Amino acid sequence: MKTLFLAICVALLGLYGCRSGNTINEWADYADTRIGVIDTRANNCVIGPRLPYGSIYPSPQTPNGGMDGYHPNFPIRGFGQLHVSGTGWGAYGHFLVSPQVGTLVADTAGHDSPHSEDVTRPYYYSTFLDRYQTQVEIAPAHYSAMYRFTFPKAEEAGLLFDASQAIPTDIERNMNGKVLESSAQIDMETGKMRMKITYRGGWVNGLYSLYMVGQYNKKATEVGVWCGDSLYADQTVIQNDTSARGKHIGVYCKFDTDKKEKVLLKLAISFTGYDRAEALLEQEIPEWSFENVERQGKQIWEEKFRRIEIEGATWEQNVMFYSAMFRFYTLASDRTLDRADWEEGKPYWDDNYAYWDTFRSAYPLMTLIDEPMMRSNLQALIERYKQNGVVYDGFIGGRDRVAEQGGNDVDHIIAEACLKNVEGVDWNEAYRIVKHNADCRRIGHHNHKTVGDNYTKYKELGWIPEGVMSTSQSLEYAYNDYSVALMAQKLGLEDDYKKYLQRSHQWKQLWNPELESYGYKGFIDARRCNGEFVFFEPTRYGGSWKSPFYEATSWTYSYYTPHDMDTLISLMGGADTFVERLKYGFQKGLIDYTNEPGFLTTRAFTHAGRPDLSSYWVHDVMRNGYDLTGYPGNDDTGSMASWYVFCSVGIFPNAGQDYYYLNAPLYSKSTIHLAGGKTLVITANASDKNIYIKSCKVNGKPWNRAIIEHGEIANGGTIEMELSDVPTEWGKELE
Q1: Alpha-carbon gap, residue 609 to 662, rounded angstroms
Q2: For residue 45, what are the CA distances in angstroms to 41, 68, 70, 416, 436?
Q3: What span, in angstroms and rounded, lies between the C-alpha atoms of 198 and 661?
Q4: Nearest CA to 622 among 580, 665, 571, 657?
Q5: How far apart are CA 447 and CA 459, in angstroms?
Q6: Core-most of 72, 256, 259, 416, by most CB within 10 Å?
Q7: Which is it for strands 717-724 and 679-684: parallel, antiparallel or unpaired?
Q8: Residue 210 has what pLDDT?
């Protein structure tokens, strides 16, 4: 692994040149889309380029490409137009484009090509297809993209377009998926084409249709359609009828090319129809200028990256930071202009794989540095609730995912934004969403087949009786209730505040004082309907959708009380014992603090008066979990990336509430651009060894608390930290 890492560093140095610190003014050139793709920890990130929150997401696809469709060690099969990054359960990958030279091969596995000379930027992707001696370049707009193919001299160079391709069908088949319909057509004279696919599969396993329109700029010597491995010259229309069931279909075009001749292709994708796709393509890429699309994309990324400007960083830190920023900006898709049944002008956001992942750090980061987009998301949630009567945790391809991994976690996103005073939102309308969740939901794992009303017991008993995810969801519902209570209080709804606040403390009924592990007594446990504890082994990891704990053990979930840490500390025997067993859990690998349920465990020390230990373990994760290959685990649509962005500048949110924890940052200066032109500047004598805070000033005044409220920084200001390489006494008081 060390040899691989060094090789990657050498390759990246060759790509970027020898840079140290911020010797360039273009942050977009630090970000590298390979990070999260070339890892060995299943980050599941997409290597292709994409604009911030973009609808289209073109990227190469390969055999054995996994959930994201691409593996760097396998030949490229073609380039799909729609992907989602860091999900761990892929979708899309449709409308594959395969450039070829020589006899055109339609067979799906017959036109793979080794590749080299990859260039991977947020706004630009390039690779060289060795088999075809052809360079492929991609520059995305928001709904559309432009390709530039540089062919060798050839009497027969061509483009093959696949209308039936999908990641769950063709690459990662265990996800299941089915092409219900596909069709394609091509026009010899204009070079225009249309393709449609209707598909069921992916994370939601829902039905959706996609429409692609495209055009190439060189006169073709031949066009046709294909089915399976057969070409049909001079035919221009094909659809997936009975005779083509189970076979891929599409269209193709052939050219006579000179040496290094460039052929351009522009295309757009719509969930609504061909007319909408054509309108979006004309709006975004009206001309045949690859350079313009690339330049505009870079400008858009530059503005987004400048929301946080870091100084005093090494070259490697710059690359890691802005690559993580890139992943954060891909957490969802803004499809406001592509929704047929949506009122015109109403914001519409898609591909929210799981708020369970993104509420913890990604949406708080959006609230902090991109308030207009946070406002747009909230307005879209309100509209979804008006239309559907509920907002589920997952929403992909315009379809709800009913089964949820944790709680009703959109509550935290809405409540936190309200507490932090995001402007331009009808908070009474937004409150309807969270109140509906609190009063009518909290019902547990929707897909679990059980007897009676076992999974409707949360509000009656205070916990969900033993079953799939029963305990972890009960804990998360308790915290959901707390967030809703805070929002109700802010809106002056005192009765709701009291009701949900009282319910939020019911998590204590899952505390089993007799459950023991490694000499420590008292853990969160599963509980039966009659009140009996199960005595579920605290170290047992049940994975996903199996045990009473989702993606964590009781050792990890026993620290999941983000709103009630004082009570938890008391139950564990006081601050000293709390700190001792938490350290033991980390040192022995009993607590996974790199997956979502454990995101706040490193911060638990702070509540026990030991922010020095919080800073130590945060730096341990940043040092050992993040590098130039990727992240500690599945990125979860920007969750891992946004965790790093926050921690590296020295703050981290307790999501669903309105305060942040402080830790020693990695950089000497971070300038965070807030809403309304305000700036927050964080400075420190940062170094590899200085991982503890010795003293701190906020807006010039001494600050002795290891937390800071959002209101203290919302109008901008300064946080000045003096750091130390040894533990200090700073910040032991929370109040």
Answers
A1: 13
A2: 11, 6, 9, 28, 34
A3: 47
A4: 665
A5: 19
A6: 416
A7: parallel
A8: 97
* pLDDT tens digits, 592-629: 988 999 999 999 999 999 999 999 999 999 999 999 99
Give the Cα separation of 56 and 268 in Å (integer): 8
Calpha distance 353→203 (Å, rounded): 8
**Which phi and psi (to 5°) does residue 450 adopt?**
-140, 165
pLDDT in tens, 169-196: 999 988 888 999 999 999 999 999 999 9
Nearest to 108 by CA among 194, 223, 227: 227
pLDDT digits (tens, 9 = 90+) for 425-468: 999 999 999 999 999 999 887 554 444 566 678 999 999 999 99
Rounded to 5, what percent of the chain is helix, strand, coil? 30, 25, 45
Block residue for tokens 């999260």? 36
User: Using an 8 Å Cβ cutoff, are 559 and 597 in contact?
Assistant: no
The token duo for 662 is 């402080």
**Strands of 322-453, DSSP E:** 333-334, 349-350, 394-396, 399-401
pTM score of the predicted model: 0.95
Q: How many residues does the chain have?
A: 735
Domains of the chain, by residue range, sit at 36-303
CA distances from 86 to 92, 165, 326 (A): 13, 20, 12
Kindly write down the DSSP assignment for every residue of 63-90, as one continuous string.
TT-GGGT--TTS-B-EEES---SS-SS-
Rounded distance, CA 38 to CA 36, Å?
Answer: 6
Q: What is the DSSP letter of 38?
A: S
Alpha helices in 420-461 (DSSP H): 427-440, 458-461
Tell me the C-alpha to C-alpha distance, in Å, between residue 732 and each of 609, 614, 704, 707: 4, 11, 8, 10
Amino acid in position 531: G
**Residues whose CB is less than 8 angstroms from the CB of residue 511 and which lie 6 or more positions away in sequence, other chains included:** 522, 523, 524, 525, 571
CATH number of 36-303: 2.70.98.10
Residues 664 and 361: their CA atoms lie apart, in Å, by 18
115 DSSP β-pair partners: 129
CA proximity to 691, closest of 627, 631, 603, 617:
617
pLDDT > 60? residue 288: yes
pLDDT at 582 over 90: yes
Q: What is the pLDDT of residue 560?
A: 98
Tell me the C-alpha distance between 381 and 658, whole Å: 21
Does the pLDDT value for residue 321 go beyond 60?
yes
Predicted local confidence at residue 519, as pLDDT: 97
Name the residue type at position 134.
T
Which 3 state secondary structure label does DSSP give 166? Answer: coil
